[in-house]
Each structure stands twice: as C-alpha cells, then as structure tokens.
Amino acid sequence: MSVPLFGSHRPPGRAGKCDRHLPQLAQELEQLLTMAEDSLAFSTLRLPGDDREELAGVLAEFAEDVRNGIGIWDSLEQHNIEFFGTRLPLVLRPGEDTDQRPVNEHRLQHLLWVMYSELKPELLLSPTHQDLKLMAATVSTFLRKRFAGIPRGSAVKAFLGGPNTYGWEVKRKLIWLGTHSYLFRSSFLNYVEKHGKKPEVPIVDDFLCQQTTAWSGLGAIDILAGVLDITPEQRATLRGWFDRHTAIYQVLAVDGLLMKVVNKICDKPYTVRRGNGTNPFEIGQVVLGSLVPWNGEWYWSGQQWGVGKMPEDQLQKMKDSFLKDSPLIAYRYCDELAEKARASLNLNCRRFLDYHGDDLAVYPDGVAMAGDRQKEMRLQWESHPPEVVAKAMDKFKLPNPWPSASYPQSLLESKNGVGVYCNTDEGDEVMTGFNDIISGLKKRGAGLTRDEQEAIREFVGSDSISPAFVRRMVREYGHESIEAAFLIRGESQDYHLDYLLRQHKGEYYRKRYPRITLV
Hints:
Number of helices: 23
Oligomer: single chain
Radius of gyration: 26 Å
Shape: flat
Mean pLDDT: 94
C-alpha cells in the first residue's frame, strides 16, 4: 500500500512510534500475498491488485491493533464470546482458546475469511478452506517476525483514548472507525456502492449508526462501545444510536450552546447541545433531522434540513405524511403508537392462525398466494358489523366492502412455491423459491442441488426474512442443510446457526418494531 493511500486512513493527531513503519510493512505484505497466491492449491483467494493492496493494509493495521492493545479486535472477540461462547466462530469450538500470541493463525484465519467475503462479495468460501489456513499461517509467521523489531505506540490508540465527554467527541471516533478502520472500511465502501455510490452525509450516518456487518452481525457502534473507556450505561447508550430520533423538530429556545426543541411527531421536548460556531437555526424554525443521546443531552446526527417557519396546519400535514411514510421510525419515540401497532399486529396474527391453522402457509405459486390472501382479507371484513365496514369504505374510498392488496409483479410470477410466515413480532414475511428451500432442508445436508443451496442461502441472507422464520423451518427440518449450503464443514456446533443468523441478519438482534402502518 502506498504511503499516501495508507495515510488517508489514519486518524487525526500525532503519529505514534509504530506508525512510520506501517506503510513499508503494508508494501511487504502485498508482496507476500502475491507470492503466497502462487503457492495455493486453488485460484479462489487470488485478488486483483487494488484488492490485494487493500488487504495488505488491513493486515498491517490488524497487527498494529492487537500488538498495541487498541481494542478493536478485542471488542469483536468479546462480543463473540458473549454471543457464541467462542472468540473466533467457525474457527474455534466453544471453550477452546486461541494461541496466546497477539498475532496468530486462528485470528488471521477468521479475519481473512470475513475480509475475502467483503473484497469478493460473490465468493462463497468455507471458513476452513485449506488455502485459507495456509494463507493465515504464512501471514501470521511473517507478521510476528516483522513486528518484533517495531516499537509500540499508535496514533489510533491515542485517538480512540481521547475524551468522551461530549457527543461530538464520540461521533468523531465513530466516523473514523466506521469509514477508515481496517475492520469496517471495506464494509462501508460496499454499503456506499449499494446505496447511490456517493458517500453523502445521510448514507454515511446510516452506515455508522444502524448498519450491521459480516463481523458477527455487529455495527460500528457496537465495536466502538467495546473499545472506549466508558461506563456500562454509556456503552448501552452508544449501542442504542441505531434508534436515532429522526423527526420533524421545532426550535423553542436557544441558550448559548444549548437548544430546546420539540419533536412535532410525539410532542416531546429535547435539550440539544451544539458545537461552537454560529447557530444555524432560529427560534420557531422547523428542522428535519436526527438526534442521538449522550450524557443526558441530545446531539444532531447526520444532516439537518431547516425548512423555515410554518403555520400549524402545514406542520400537521407534514406530521401526517411522516407517520404514513415512516411509521417504524416514529415507533422509536412514540411509545403509544408503537403499542397500538403491536396490538394491531397481534390481532392480525390471531386472524392468520384462525384462518390457516398454523403460523406458516405454503402456496404453489404467487397467484395462488395472492388469491388466498385476498379471500382471507374479505372474510375478515365480512365478520365486522355492516356500519363499521361502510364507514371504512367511505374513509378509504373502497369500491368493495373489503380492501384489495397489491403485490410485486415478481412475486405474482413466482412459480416455485411461496411461503408466508406470520411473525408475531414483525408481521407477515413472504419467501419465494420455497419448494427448493423445503426440499433442500429435508435432505439434512446431503446431496443438495445447486438450486436448493442457492435458495437456502437466499433465505438466510434475505433482509426481509427474520431469524424467527428460519428457526421455524429448522425446528421442522433441521439445520444441517443450512451449514452445508454455507460450506461449514466438520463437526456441527450448536452455535453455528446462531452465528450465520447474526452475521446475515444482525439488525434483527437489535430492538425491533412492528412492520405495520396504523391508519
């Protein structure tokens, strides 16, 4: 890795004694990776030049981290112990400890396995692939010898060890960790590529505060909470930043560096601390933005849009539009609305169970699914008193005494089975390709076809399918085919499924809200 490129990822502040050695070390690692690729049995781990250069930098900074006690990798391992009972999932068994040397083959095997999936998202790689083990052994031997002559002292450790009194001090560290650290920068670039290809402020803030990653389903806020020298209460607050209070605010007062604002969605007041400089907002002004808490105060997070002053009738229209378009955000701070949504969801699930006799309905195709769901909805409406139905027809301008549902064309055209699961915490979940999922799971890991493997991987990897749905199928058919589809070989461990679900569905392990809109 070139010196300018390597330097672009370093945090602000004075360089440590170790820092000046890292660019040269990264260049040597790049050469080592090039030579190591030629000795591998397969071409699976071959990388193009830019990716190899990036991986070399990641390896150098990983070694800097574990040797200087920065805490980034240690935070990951501590979370892994909490979740899975092992520091290095799919490398070590529960209770089995790693080599006590900071840089060792086990850590590098896990690091390389995840990094190859980030650098080559299309790659399906076994965590115990023989070439992966060989690469880990080669790199660990080199790094131990090379770091023996490098002094300790890291700018990263000094930067992350700075004050955490104010929210912006923590946010500066979060921005660096999420966008420049060896652990997250590839995940960040992949996220930006997927969401508009430009690192605009809203996209960056979404990644920092709410995105989970292939690192055990953890996000930047989770790892940072384990790195910083803060109290357990502060740690919980930081990990709760995924629940940013995104809303319509109105400025009530400005007193020095403090502002009083009211959330117009739920009418709750907030005390907001701002940084030094000119206050961009006037009393009475309406602001669209997000707030996060720290030490009893609130701080702006990401971008804010000032829309000027406006009369109450316009504000009410904005509020109504917000609740219609973004109900899951409103549930974060509108407790009463969230409880109503949960009650409505519970009622829907009871009706689903009454109609189907089970929490899972399986259809031959999308058309059959749509027709039956329409019938289910019609029967529900027919159970209401006529005056209630008439009132609803008038309110929603319905041509018939029941609502009509619309579905994506791709779902309607699905021919290979459709599964609908009623999740009492989330709402209905729909999965296509269900015939291949069931037939693949039934095989208990032996003799799966390519279509079955792909369907199972899509099932586990889909953002719209919860761990509860996957576990519902596992209870009936077993987990062996899931492990086989993800190339997890050797002795099966109880935590393997937990790990795959967290890795691919990390957002479901945070606080969740019903996926339902109140009307």
